[in-house]
User: What shape does this take?
Amino acid sequence: MTVQSNVDHAEIAKFNDIASRWWDPSGEFKPLHLLNPVRLSYISDELQGLFGKSVIDIGCGGGILAESMARCGATVTALDMAADSLEVARLHALEAGVEVNYQQATAEDYAAAHAASFDVVTCMEMLEHVPDPMSVIQACADLAKPGATLFFSTLNKTWKAYMLAIIGAEQVLKLVPKGTHKFSKFIRPSQLMRYLEQAGLELVDATGLHFNPLNESFKTGPGLDVNYIVVARKTL
Assistant: This one.
């Protein structure tokens, strides 16, 4: 069954329009390039290494995280619905000599054909861009093997997140294009925890992702009031 109803076509078009700049570290995706080493380290630490793991990255965009996980020795499949972004990701991986299996598919459709296939599922900065986050989380749970580890990151629905992510990052610092985020789609941790429970997942950890504009760096740490990551496990 095709799950086109859980695709926001305006969001897909938005990312396709700037797809050619995914790998420009000073362009629209600069925050992801700054964030990637931090989230990669966090994922690797939680897993005690990525080498030999089968990983699926949901909403991979231009492949910044997917490619870095493959460099760490993981076997990576990466999904996105933005065709132009995927073409950029494939070309960059080819030029870099990194093997990633990029697929244009929704998480729901891919889960229907590849249930219980992956040791690790990552879904980073993606839930706030779909109409039904719970549907994606359930698909992620379906893709995971029993005992697998899942990572989700998103933005909290707080006024601090609105001020920093939309007013600060989009309008003042211009780190990301205007309209990248919609406050109405931000997700409170309590709501995300309910989604995880409904999908049969067990919460393992949660941490904040904190940006320092003075030195343009991210770090993990206590406080989930803006960007945050949760780690879950698929129970046996």
